[in-house]
């Protein structure tokens, strides 16, 4: 559907952000986001210093600015063990080579919204991450009141992992944020039973580590049983539980978004009114 604010048929194309985009990139960020970014951030983006980026342009612009940015996404690679995702630090600490792609900023100029540009920019990031063998996920933060962005990420199969209290400080006021993750290259939620069982079977753990890794998934009584059995044959007990789960499907249902086993829930979708912006 054509945006009614445009008087022409846009032809949207995507390209890397270049040094010549510096001024426009700064302006769009200033127009869209309540957070002001340092000049060094924009220099790093346009020069590709530890940041990858994609820009959207309209080749049919009637004002002669067919190569001027009308949308963008910026991201960087981080080691999974150094990320702020607690589960990856806790369960994947032995896999030091694994990486994640963190989306820094995403924005589309006001007159070009509702044309699918933001979705296409996110797809560029996902495609980039999928082509890195060591990458396991794309992740980002969204401020809690940004309903359009929240809806977009859910629609694109990002998983909302948790709500982070007082994550942002804007003009002296605290705002919560949501952490969203999109898994690639076989990556999956470190909180899922499948992930934890495989991790437990791959390497020996202390009794405390076993208890900590299973406590969020199974009842306390079962955790006590597993800990008690740890010294005298934990792997045998775990294998029996695994076979029993495969033979007798229980109250666990398959999560539509993640494919992991989670308790049945009814997720509410948020409306898409308002402008899309994503920032950290």
Automatic annotation (TrEMBL):
Family: Belongs to the acetyltransferase family. NAA60 subfamily.
Reaction catalysis annotation: N-terminal L-methionyl-[transmembrane protein] + acetyl-CoA = N-terminal N(alpha)-acetyl-L-methionyl-[transmembrane protein] + CoA + H(+); L-lysyl-[protein] + acetyl-CoA = N(6)-acetyl-L-lysyl-[protein] + CoA + H(+)
An example Gene Ontology biological process: chromosome segregation
GO MF terms held by the record: histone acetyltransferase activity; protein N-terminal-methionine acetyltransferase activity
GO CC annotation terms, alphabetical: Golgi membrane
Protein name according to UniProt: N-alpha-acetyltransferase 60
UniProt-listed Enzyme Commission number(s): 2.3.1.259, 2.3.1.48
Record's keyword terms, sorted: Acyltransferase, Chromatin regulator, Chromosome partition, Transferase
Xref: SUPFAM superfamilies: Acyl-CoA N-acyltransferases (Nat)
Domain N-acetyltransferase span(s) in chain numbering: 12-185
Pfam families xrefs: Acetyltransf_1 (PF00583)
